[in-house]
């Protein structure tokens, strides 16, 4: 159960992880919003990802009723500062990501890394939302995760472990900043230590 939940956290954090500390654009457009449907453990929910400055500012918001409890989490990345925001409890933690952190989370968009990782393989490309996607499968420690990636953006993910499946599917991509306030932490939220 913990492995499958960890993959969900990784998915939400993927956009944060795809930030690289260099000047090349990370994503194919300057700013956009991607809406996803999320299915896991018999529950359905939504995830909305916004990014700006070609991915150097990113926020992922996940809303899901999980085991009878609402899970409303927001992960915000501004440069190398990562904020994990608990919307229900109105608090957040802050951490600084190092170059090694980015490297560990950035394997999907680095084609050279695919050949180095024996647990990750590239499959035949597929089309989603009229976008040509590269398809990758990661198998490790009883967990199999399949990613559909279009120009560094995950459009679909299916992950299975211990008989449980998580499915995340992009339903809409809209270019431009849709909600500028999503990149801010409300002033009434309290910071907690890690």
General description of the model:
The chain has 194 residues and is mainly beta. The protein has one domain (2-107, 152-184): Clam (outer membrane lipoprotein receptor (LolB), chain A). The chain has helices at residues 2-17, 99-105, 111-116, and strands spanning 32-40, 43-52, 57-66, 69-78, 81-86, 91-96, 120-128, 131-140, 143-150, 153-161, 164-175, 190-191. The protein has a twelve-stranded mixed beta sheet, with helices on one face. Helix 1 packs across helix 2 (99-105). The chain is globular, with a radius of gyration of 16 Å. The relative contact order is 0.22.
Largest sheet: spatial strand order: 7-8-9-10-11-1-2-3-4-5-6-12
Instruction: Briefly note the CATH topology name.
Output: outer membrane lipoprotein receptor (LolB), chain A
The pLDDT mean sits at 79
List low-confidence stretches.
Answer: 1-10, 12-23
Shape descriptor: globular
- Helix content range of the residues, please? 10-25%
Radius of gyration equals 16 Å
- How would a textbook summarize the main sheet? 12 strands, mixed
Structural class: mainly beta
CATH class: Mainly Beta
Counted up, domains total: 1
Give the terminus-to-terminus CA distance: 23 Å
Q: In terms of quaternary structure, what is this? A: single chain
Strands, count: 12
Strand content: over 45%
